[in-house]
TrEMBL record:
InterPro entries: FAD/NAD-bd_sf. The gene is LOC103717914. It comes from the Eukaryota. This is Renalase isoform X4. Pfam families: NAD_binding_8 (PF13450).
């Protein structure tokens, strides 16, 4: 692509959203296609309404992120200035299942942890609204075809509807192209890229590992836990636990802070 003027980005997770924003900043007209209802992908936020009408919010993908590259740091700095992210200043540690003890307390601020505000999806939402980015939610791209005669990519939806033609296509989610991924938990079927055999072969080797997230709410604060996030030692099942309501910028769930998610 020497001078692409129209690019389709498949997926509005962090990689698709950042890519769309960078391309749009260079004057490219970008259309983001997203199967889900909103932006975020594995950095999305889930809303649940309790019986009494209270709303609960969970970051059910990445709980936070760290930065170790100066270019990314400057990008994150600009998001921080816009109020899209904030540092999560809490004490973290680990929990040894064998001894039942918390250990390895990490000093506040040793490794800066950032979260989206008010939810992890805030970054992707904002990037997908930037000038030059058009986002189509609830649209799953089913197939991409290379039109040799016109040097364009043609996209079709799951019901074979025409989604347009583009100079370039960015498939942001590795699951998009992996034939091993077959729509677990209602996610879309893998994208048909059979018209590009080279891509299809490359994508076969991308491993996919499933994981599950439990979203739990407690009526009382868990005072016996001395940290707001911890990893598990000596557990083959559990990896981490985090207290979402301790993150900055989360809506106050109850005045006495008795509800903790
Ligand atoms: C539980 C959990 C904890 C994590 N913890 C951390 C952490 O602590 N720190 C960290 O840095 N990372 C963490 N990660 C990883 C991080 O969340 C992901 O690496 C990152 O969000 C992936 O972004 P992405 O844009 O590549 O893909 P995704 O976020 O998966 O976005 C891909 C998007 O493409 C859409 N899509 C797929 N197929 C199609 C199609 N055919 N048509 C249209 N749309 C389509 C999907 O709906 C999705 O929204 C965690 C992930 C999980 C699940």
């Amino acid at each position: 692509m020497a001078n692409p003027s129209r690019v389709a980005v498949i997926g509005s997770g962090i990689s698709g959203a950042v890519c769309a924003s960078l391309l749009a900043g260079k004057g490219v007209s970008v259309t983001v296609f997203e199967s889900g209802r909103g932006a975020g992908g594995r950095m999305s936020q889930r809303r649940e309404t309790m019986e009494d009408g209270k709303e609960l919010f969970f970051d059910h993908g990445a709980p936070y992120f760290t930065v170790n590259h100066h270019e990314v740091m400057s990008l994150v700095g600009s998001w921080e200035a816009q109020g899209l992210v904030a540092e999560w200043k809490e004490i973290f540690g680990s929990f040894d299942r064998n001894t039942g003890k918390f250990l390895d307390f990490e000093k506040e601020g040793l490794t800066k942890k950032y979260v989206g505000v008010p939810g992890m999806n805030s970054i992707c939402k904002a990037l997908c609204r930037e000038p030059g980015v058009e986002t189509k939610f609830g649209v799953t791209v089913g197939k991409i075809n290379w039109l040799q005669d016109r040097s364009l990519w043609s996209l079709t939806g799951l019901d074979r509807e025409d989604l347009g033609q583009f100079d370039g296509v960015v498939a942001s989610d590795k699951n998009i192209t992996s034939p091993r991924f077959t729509g677990v938990t209602g996610r879309p079927q893998p994208l048909d890229i059979s018209s590009s055999p080279e891509l299809a072969v490359m994508s076969q080797d991308i491993p996919v590992r499933s994981c599950f997230v439990l979203m739990l709410v407690f009526r009382e604060p868990l005072l016996s836990i001395p940290v707001k996030g911890f990893s598990f030692k000596n557990s083959e099942v559990l990896s981490w636990a985090f207290c979402d309501s301790s993150k900055p910028g989360r809506p106050c769930l109850s005045p006495d802070s008795r509800v903790c998610s």
